[in-house]
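Trying the structure run again after the queue cleared.
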Amino acid sequence: MAAERNQLTGGQKAAILMSLLGPEICANVFKHLSDDEIEHLTLEIANLRDVDGDATHRVLQESHDALYDALTVHPGKLPFAAARELDPSHLLYLVMDEHPQTIALILAHLPADQAAHILAGIPEERQVEVARRLATLDRTPREILSEVDAALQERISTSRPAEYVDAGGVDAVVDVINFMDQAAKRSLLERLELHDPGLAEKIRHESLPFDDLEHFDDDDVQRIVAAVTEKVWAFALKTAGEGVTERVLRNTPRRSAERLRAAIDDLGPVRLRDVEAAQNEVVRVVRDLQRAGEILMVKTVEDELIV
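Done. Tokens:
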């Protein structure tokens, strides 16, 4: 059901904001919430459909005002703090037409993964110029930095999305869950099972366990391997089953596979949360490739049974 104008509850506002910020940030927010709050917010996100553009604008405006007040009270915050909280796709939309020097200045103050997403989304004819300016960027006077930051904050607060924005739904919940650790995933699904068994089943069906990599076709595994860094693979495979590890290494170029084996051995003891974070990153890449139509949906053993 669409979130209608002037009828948003606090829970709906939170769900809209989480959907706009993206799954990774949303999962980090969940770490600071109680189990009841997580369950309530998850249900709100799952129940969102097309969101009225005016409603989205109001939520962004309220969030910006609250963030701006916080920055005013705590002036030591990092530059472009408001931009850091945005989903990279939304931020790309806001800076797309800026001067290459301005874009380079903004990218220099963003996390590397967020900056990489924006640089990749800029038209190819401008990418080189932005990259060149980013590489040669030196110290920037604080007053100029403040002016650009303030202008971008104003753009964020006044940006008006399309009449309706895709937000929420089961896919949004699945994306968030894929950034949560295993214990948090289990806890959330168990609680959802009690209150909404149908939704819990849908989420389980759409969620992709890391071990399901074993069931992808070789061509698809090769695409997945190419889209994930060696460091992430080393952590992700540290505790993986033999079938998954063999499948990944078999579809990795020989020299790269040898280097990956060595990287796994060289890791030594690692924290479970680091392994799970790496596996979650692989799952995120897989879902992105599936949505882009570059790889097929995985076929589980049950799919192959004939009864």
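The two ends are 38 Å apart (CA to CA). Worth checking whether this holds up in the mutant runs.
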